[in-house]
Amino acid sequence: MASDEAETLAGVGEFAVIDRLVAGRRQPETVQLGPGDDAAIVSAADARVVVSTDMLVEGNHFRLDWSSPHEIGRKAIAQNAADIEAMGATTTAFVVAFGAPGDTRTQLAVELADGMWHEAGLLGAGIVGGDLVSAPQWVISVTALGDLAGRPAVRLDGASVGDTVAVVGDLGWSAAGYALLRNGIEGFEALRRRHLVPEPPYGQGGVAAEAGATAMTDISDGLVADLGHIAKASGVGIDLSSDALGSYRDALSAAAAATAMDPWVWVLAGGEDHALVATFPGEPPTGWATIGSVLGGAPRVLLDGEQWHGDTGWESF
Fold it and tell me: Which residues contact 301 (CB under 8 A, 6 or more apart)?
């Protein structure tokens, strides 16, 4: 819904802004009661609900001089949906809380919501409620709900010695895009955009679950870091193959040269692509690429049998 360019959140008021953000939105059949009451009601045919929450803080997770509100909205939804995918589930609904200064133009909040609804629509999910508050800078908190459709959840602790390690999605693109943006390097539009709007491989979490995945996670902090969570939870080692990962490195070589970076750092330690990595007792399903194997011994992540001594990935503190 259009709004006056000069209107601010404080000027319009909390409830009038919320009315604008939810007006005209269409909910999926799984939503029995959407925004407007004290709480929403979402059907859970499986009798279990997969739940994940994540936050984005301006200046830490996004920059308003790099990203449009629409892009930020898409990113907020995508990174939460990836966590649901990583459990082998399908995302059904989102709850969103948004904090911003009172002088924020109302139209920017509308554009943020438009981006969220665009991304949720790619999943057939709805945004069923949330909150709007005053804050010193933009803060977005998203809770995602998912449905396992009768399948067991694919957890971090199921990998076994002899399993195959496989990935679906791109590796290192977001980190490359960030380096390009930070250094003001033009070109490489696909990489720059991927940092602003991730593209999780929607639907592949369920594919992996159906194929018997024993452990799975999305790559949010970096390949080595996130596989380290699987290794620790499962009590196994993981050995990655540089030959199998070579095509991911090669795809980033030109951007790495332009930024004087090592592309291996992006592939192994770059996060926020939200690709999925999983372990399988045999060959992975179609579309997944084998990149390593599960070993016995102490929990660790190796590259060609050796310790990786570069960056391992993102940490919040």
Answer: 224, 227, 228, 231, 237, 238, 239, 240, 308
